[in-house]
Task: structure prediction
Amino acid sequence: MASTEAAAIALQDHAALWSAGEISASDVVDAACDALVAGLDTPGLRILAACTRAEADYDVHYLLPPALAELGLTFHPVASGAGREAAARALARRMLAGELKPWELTFRVHQRYGHELPLTERLAELDDEYAILEYGDRTVDQVDAEVTAEARRLAAHPRAPTEPADIPG
Result:
């Protein structure tokens, strides 16, 4: 069973990735279920976790922000800079967990943000380096190591709170 802190981080990451269009709404519902199993429990989280796959595409948009707020977590609007940074950090954590290869991380970040997001500029540059490896003196392993170091830097962002926020009633 995942710790409540890990479940809160995973839910926050899923919210950021969904907001950025990286994952489906049903993936967010799955993360809500995992959070409940891990011991996080609020009314909004229970409602979110109860969505069927068919309902998720319609309901996550409305259910996710209040569920996160009850847990003291943040929902970042789709086009916000903070949301893009949160999604990039979530992708970095996925790479470090073995869910993405280093080149996949750089490709996704570079494709989505180009060289315009200061937080991920180095990853975009490293994606460019993958493209020219055959012409230079660097190896895939060297670039992979640099991507991994950059992913660790991004993932070191302060963790999401795990205590429910006081919600005025």
Notes: The mean pLDDT is 89.
